Amino acid sequence: MTTTERTAASYFLPSDEPLGLVSPDGTAVKEPELAMPADDVLRQLHRGMVTGRRFDTQATALTKQGRLAVYPSARGQEACEIGAILALRPQDWLFPTYRDSMAVVARGVDPVEVLTLLRGDWHCGYDPYRANVAPQCTPLATNTLHAVGFAHAARTKGEDTVALALLGDGATSEGDTHEALNFAAVWKAPVVFLVQNNGYAISVPLAKQTAAPSLAHKGVGYGMPSVLVDGNDAAAVHAVVEQAVAHAAAGDGPTLIEAVTYRVESHTNADDATRYRERAEVEKWLERDPIARLKRYLTDRALLTEQAEQEIDAHAEQAAAALRERMNADVALDPAELFQHVYAEPTAALRDQAAELAAEIGERA
Ligand SMILES: Cc1ncc(C[n+]2csc(CCOP(=O)(O)OP(=O)(O)O)c2C)c(N)n1
Ligand SMILES: [Mg+2]
């Protein structure tokens, strides 16, 4: 029987408990339902998470130095951000949100270009076609629709491309998410939806967001395989995303993955999370740290030496220093650029506005 013939609700149902491969204490999960990634992939996941966290810390520091207007930290969510990206093939596309700068950098986009949005200079500071990364979306869930439309079009053209849409727990309540999930399943579009359930939508906890048994359960109603995974277990996130990408690439349609994780920092540097959650809750999640657990697993198996760790730290530090230096340089912006990249061919209205602005600037000069 092919997967296209399997339509019984039970086939689509997620597990009761999140799937995992490495326990919070760094030991292997017994009788896992997933295959452990190869040693090399595990090492790459560890390295990627260390580098990603250092980037994230640096970006937060840049807000304090006035070099970034705002930064939504993904600290604590490294297993999702890195695990998912490393499971993509070069030809696949990423549709990220404001939370996912770490993932965009991991995909190979220049970090300064990534942070251009959060500095307030450009809506998207990078060329989406260079690393197959769509612009980061701040309006919740709009990227899910972009991903479905893009993936459906790619498949219609006969291209072997899978779109990965990242979204938050809060974004699952948006009408856009409903439309995206529904049509992705109806069209069997090659899309993977990865919900990073980090417990909160700004100050709104999950319990006030949904009455569903899990967010993954929502996929059943749309008719797509739904997976609940430990979102702080990079090996498990990598395994389920890789499986979902293969499923989509084979023409078997979308998958909805809910990764259970936690937003360690406030929503952004402009938010104060101590006003709506207890320190004890944060402490509990810090014990489930994604980097510490994979490090322990690798060290216990002699897959990570002290020397290798030092080299990874030094490399992450170097990258952060280079980012700091480049972000500290003042940028000269040309207001005329405001009208670029809006349409492939500018409309008459846009041309008029550009001319009006140029004339106004000319008068003041
Ligand atoms: C359509 C829309 N409505 C409201 C907002 C304001 N807003 C920004 S972030 C956010 C919370 C989103 O929470 P979640 O989807 O869980 O993502 P997280 O920030 O936790 O990564 C809200 C309500 C928005 N950006 N877009
Ligand atoms: Mg959230």
TrEMBL record:
PANTHER family (UniProt xref): 2-OXOISOVALERATE DEHYDROGENASE SUBUNIT ALPHA, MITOCHONDRIAL
Gene name as annotated: pdhA_2
Protein name: Pyruvate dehydrogenase (Acetyl-transferring) E1 component subunit alpha
Pfam family, one: E1_dh
Residue ranges constituting the Dehydrogenase E1 component domain according to the UniProt record: 49-318
Cofactor(s) for this UniProt protein: thiamine diphosphate
InterPro entries registered for this protein in UniProt: Alpha-ketoacid_DH_E1_comp, DH_E1, PdhA/BkdA, THDP-binding
Domain of life: Bacteria
UniProt key word Protein biosynthesis: no
Swiss-Prot/TrEMBL keywords: Oxidoreductase, Pyruvate, Thiamine pyrophosphate
